[in-house]
Design a protein that fits this description.
Layout (H helix, E strand, L loop, with lengths): L2 H20 L7 H38 L1 H16 L4 H6 L8 H98 L6
């Protein structure tokens, strides 16, 4: 049986099961519900058999197409399309594997958690970069302030040396002026002393 025929059988059995659910009998007679439930269970078992048949055909279609090129090309196209169909997560959650979570659903959960943690790490990395930039800016500003203070200290020190030199010059000028003044006084005094005796002497009488 080809893959297309098996898919047609699966769809027919799904339709029959849906019809049983839609036409579920009412009333209070338990026997009616029991018979309908048995019919539903039997239909679900047929669906499971059809799913297994389709799965086996999809898994073995590559081997069959290598030996049957004419009839296998259509099955291979259908199988490739079935492999590319994404299975809903809700359906995977309902499909238990060895009494545990479905491996595909578990792997998707791990990937989702890894992406979440990666996002957290990226946000932390961005925060650390911002903090490092802020600290570096503060250090640069502090260094500039220290350089400004150092330049001001050097300028004040140079101005202090200049004021000391100016004070020394003023003192030297004062000392020079005082010495010059004393010299002038002494010179004037000597001149007066030399001129006074000559003026007091009288000429001799004859």
């Amino acid at each position: 049986m080809s893959l297309q025929e098996r898919l047609h059988t699966l769809l027919t059995r799904l339709s029959d099961t849906s019809e049983i659910l839609q036409k579920w009998p009412g009333g209070d007679d338990p026997s009616i519900h029991v018979r309908t439930t048995e019919k539903l269970i039997e239909s679900i078992k047929k669906i499971m058999d059809s799913i297994k048949a389709v799965e086996e055909k999809v898994n073995n279609v590559s081997v069959e197409t290598s030996t049957e090129q004419s009839s296998g090309s259509g099955d291979e196209d259908i199988a490739n399309k079935l492999r590319q169909i994404a299975v809903p997560l809700d359906l995977l959650d309902m499909m238990d594997c060895a009494g545990g979570l479905n491996p595909d659903c578990f792997a998707r959960g791990l990937i989702k958690e890894a992406l979440r943690q990666m996002g957290n790490l990226q946000r932390r990395k961005a925060s650390m970069k911002m903090l490092a930039a802020t600290i570096q800016n503060g250090l640069d500003a502090r260094e500039r302030q220290l350089e400004i203070l150092k330049a001001l200290d050097e300028k004040l020190a140079s101005q202090g040396d200049m004021s000391v030199n100016n004070d020394d010059t003023r003192e030297e000028l004062k000392i020079g002026e005082s010495i010059q003044g004393q010299t002038t006084i002494e010179t004037n005094k000597r001149k007066r002393d030399e001129s006074e005796p000559q003026s007091e002497e009288e000429p001799p009488s004859k």
